[in-house]
Amino acid sequence: MEHSYYREWCIPRVQTNITSNYVKQQFIKMDIGKIIKVQDYPLKNDKDWMRMVVKVYYNPKTENSETIDKHLINNKYFKFVYNYPDYWRVYANLPQKQR
Question: Strand pairing partners for 45?
Answer without folding.
Answer: none
